[in-house]
Amino acid sequence: MTRILPSWFVERVNPVPDEDDLRVSTLELFFDLIFVFIIAQFTAIIAHDPLLGLLQATLMFGFLWWMYAGYSWLTNVIPPVRPFRRILMLCAMAGWLLVGLTVPAGFEEGSVWLGVGMLVVAVIHGVLYSQSTNKVGSVVLCNILAAFAVIASQLVDDGPWRYALWALSAAIVWSVPIWHGQRGLNLHPAHITERHGLVVLIVLGESVVAIGVGSRGLPIDADLLIAAILGLVICSCLWWSLFVRDMPGTEHVLKATTDPVRRVRKVLAGLSYAFVPVLMGILVLAAGIEHAVGHATEPLDLASTLLLSGGVAMFMLGTAGLRLSMPLPRPWERIVLAVAVLAVAPLGLLNTALQLGAIVIVLVAALAIEGRRATASTPALSE
User: Fold this and answer.
1) Are 43 and 286 in contact (CB under 8 A)?
2) What stretches pass through the bilayer (predicted)?
């Protein structure tokens, strides 16, 4: 494909840098800031209607996460070191901003701008990839077809067809690895791990923002402070559970995987598929925190209790998937932890602080036990 393109477009791709030289650029960090806005929109949708909003957010996020993760892969293969690539990345940011602005209208008739934004994102993604390889043509085509499915969802009458078309857009893109073969990419472990980790950090920041949103207009009292502090502790435990050992372990495993295809498949399973429940879990938790802040000494409704415990449980199941796919030690511990967090959900029907405190106790105890076992078995990795 690149042979028929003009020389000013191709720009001569640089030799693949050494893994230690490839770092996440400031442009990529700037690019990720757009995701903060999109995540905030999803949190608001779930907080407004925990049942229907969660369904809608899941369907939209299914497609959007594929495309957003695709840009992490893109900058891993095509570092944005030349002016032309940087300009295209900034244009893609405009497409993502359009998506963020229109996400709340994603299930409203006539809101075609969300699909238009995704089409811009998909086309620029393909243009940038064409500078490196012609083996992703089918992937780019599927991305564009999925964007058109989103546009079609905005043109049909309100009802099951809209949900079906959103589900179709996600199914199109997530089915690509099944038949594509994952050849033609040589991912750099340090960069791809750091890039996905930064996205999780950004989304975790949304949980902290949710504390501020939930406290808006409320008096500074025990109802506010207890829920806010416990919510922050829970977010801190989620960070600890992923970044202290699992993400460094992931980078170590990917570096040890010398076969490019096997490495790609590990990244797909561990950092793409498994990160769907990781990220959705944070969104669900953030929506629950919005409901809990300011009501620490009061009981919660059933939906809010399920958002709090369910969000943490989803996150832990996602980390279990990461451990299974790499593989990393003891994935079953995270499954047990998810069940334990769900088991304390009924406490919120009695008192909000009681449920939040119970979640904190379960998380801290589990992480302490994990830390002792990791220190005993692999002291060098646990330091």
Assistant:
1) yes
2) 29-48, 54-75, 87-106, 112-129, 136-155, 161-179, 199-218, 224-243, 264-286, 306-324, 336-369
Residue 383 has which token pair?
A: 């330091």
Point out the domain boundary residue: 180, 212, 240: 180
Nearest to 232 by CA among 193, 206, 195, 252: 206
Task: Give the domain-ending residue among 180, 208, 223.
Answer: 180
Instruction: Report the candidate in 271, 374, 256 with the shortest Cα–Cα distance to residue 323.
Output: 271
Is there a single domain that holds both residue 7 and residue 28? yes
Quick one: 11 and 110 in the same domain? yes
Whether 190 shows a pLDDT value over 80: the answer reads yes
- Would you say residue 171 has pLDDT above 80? yes
Highest mean pLDDT among 74-83, 118-127, 340-349: 340-349
How many CB atoms lie under 10 A from the CB of residue 135?
Answer: 15
Rounded Cα gap, residues 169 and 83, in angstroms: 32
Supply the range of the domain harboring residue 101: 2-180
Q: Are both 162 and 217 inside the same structural domain? A: no
Q: How far is 372 from 382, CA to CA, in rounded Å?
A: 9
- Shared domain for 123 and 215, answered yes or no, is no
Rounded Cα distance, 366 and 376, in Å? 16
Same domain, 225 and 330: yes
139 and 157 in contact (C-beta within 8 Å)?
A: no
Please enumerate in sequence order all residues whose Cβ is within 8 A of that of 228, keeping only pairs 6 or more positions apart, or say none. 211, 215, 293
Is pTM beyond 0.85? Reply is: yes
What does the pLDDT read at residue 133?
62
120 closest CA partner among 131, 132, 112: 112
* Gap between the Cα atoms of 229 and 356, Å rounded: 10
The predicted pLDDT at position 180 comes to 65
Are 100 and 158 found together in one domain? Answer: yes
226 and 354 in a single domain? The answer is yes
Could you tell me the two tokens for 268? 């797909």
Residues 137 and 285 in one domain: no
For the segment 136-144, the average pLDDT, to the nearest whole number, is: 83
CA atoms within a 13 Å half-sphere pointing along the CA-CB vector of 236? 9
Q: Which amino acid is at 129?
A: Y
